[in-house]
């Protein structure tokens, strides 16, 4: 027979003495000194991986000359790889006056398709060239500008084509039409695993991409703004939230009963304001001028007991202590 013995410790369960309050916090100087001396244990492997991708530069350049465009995908930042590819194209150019390299950071939040088209036009005929105000008009004028000199060629390199700034279908359509011009060569990088969902069959055909897996495992130190990403996840559009956005953010963080109490409070407040009569008065001291009537409503409020009774009737709270707790949350 098998016997199982349960040992009972008379002293009871033991807990560790370690806690968060006993840890020593890092100050800024110590943090940055450690960050500067930190060396990634995979740094050599990632550099080797970039060297492997760099061996394909001649192939990529040949594909561009055959009227294909290039899309680099894969895990990790591809920004440094594209910078090296741009340098390779520049070093192998025959006539620098006839060939241009335009690099666009698609991960910049406030970038617009107008900025991109203006940058391309400026590289051809000088900074400050006016090609219109609407994207469709700008694209047409840019195409005419390219057609004036058939010897001009532009290599357009876009980091993070799937970034939030260029993700809109209208921007993708303008870019696809621009990339289909015989004097424009497009090289892009994408970061999201579902980047292919950006394009339907017609857009994908217009881009005429050749796809290359360029996994680098490098961190997205530039492409991703951690603060902005957190604000997007929280439903906030800026680093400071106020007004309507601030109210919406606060309400989302409240429990359901506190939201219901806020709804009752707003309803009672509006009802109290409607019951107050409008007072008309004439004042010579009014800044709007003498003998001018001003319609004003005195300040209105909801009595504590009235609001508490309404909350009890709607089963928001069962006692006054919970009511006070919810009231503090919505105040």
UniProtKB/TrEMBL annotation:
It comes from the Eukaryota. Keywords: DNA replication, Nucleus. Residues 46-214 form the Origin recognition complex subunit 2 RecA-like domain. It is found in: Nucleus. Its main location: nucleus. GO terms for cellular component: nuclear origin of replication recognition complex. Residues 296-325 form the Origin recognition complex subunit 2 winged-helix domain. GO terms for molecular function: DNA replication origin binding. One of its GO terms (biological process) is DNA replication. Pfam families: RecA-like_ORC2, WHD_ORC2. Component of the origin recognition complex (ORC). Belongs to the ORC2 family. Component of the origin recognition complex (ORC) that binds origins of replication. DNA-binding is ATP-dependent. ORC is required to assemble the pre-replication complex necessary to initiate DNA replication. This is Origin recognition complex subunit 2.
């Amino acid at each position: 027979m098998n016997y199982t013995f349960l040992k009972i410790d008379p002293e009871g369960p033991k807990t560790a003495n370690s806690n968060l309050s006993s840890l020593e916090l890092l100050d800024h100087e110590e943090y940055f000194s450690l960050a500067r001396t930190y060396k990634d244990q995979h740094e050599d492997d990632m550099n080797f991986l970039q060297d492997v991708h760099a061996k394909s530069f001649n192939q990529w350049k040949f594909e561009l000359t055959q009227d294909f465009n290039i899309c680099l995908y894969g895990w990790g930042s591809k920004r440094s790889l594209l910078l090296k590819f741009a340098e390779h194209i520049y070093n192998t150019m025959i006539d620098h006056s006839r060939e241009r390299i335009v690099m666009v950071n698609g991960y910049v939040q406030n970038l617009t398709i107008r900025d991109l088209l203006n940058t391309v036009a400026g590289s051809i005929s000088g900074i400050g060239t006016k090609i219109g105000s609407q994207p469709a008009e700008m694209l047409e004028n840019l195409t005419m500008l390219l057609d004036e000199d058939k010897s001009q060629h532009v290599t357009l390199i876009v980091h993070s084509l799937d970034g939030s700034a260029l993700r809109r279908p209208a921007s993708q359509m303008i870019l696809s039409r621009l990339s289909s011009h015989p004097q424009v060569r497009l090289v892009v990088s994408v970061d999201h695993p579902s980047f292919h969902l950006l394009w339907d069959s017609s857009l994908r055909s217009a881009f005429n991409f050749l796809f290359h897996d360029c996994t680098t495992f490098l961190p997205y130190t530039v492409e991703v703004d951690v603060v902005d990403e957190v604000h997007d996840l929280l439903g906030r559009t800026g680093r400071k939230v106020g007004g309507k956005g601030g109210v919406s953010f606060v309400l989302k963080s409240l429990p359901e009963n506190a939201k219901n109490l806020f709804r009752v409070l707003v309803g009672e407040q509006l009802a109290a304001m409607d019951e107050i009569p409008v007072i008309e008065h004439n004042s010579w001291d009014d800044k709007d001028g003498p003998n001018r009537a001003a319609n004003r409503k005195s300040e209105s409020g909801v009595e504590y007991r009235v609001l508490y009774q309404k909350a009890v009737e709607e089963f928001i709270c069962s006692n006054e202590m919970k009511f006070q707790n919810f009231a503090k949350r919505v105040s």
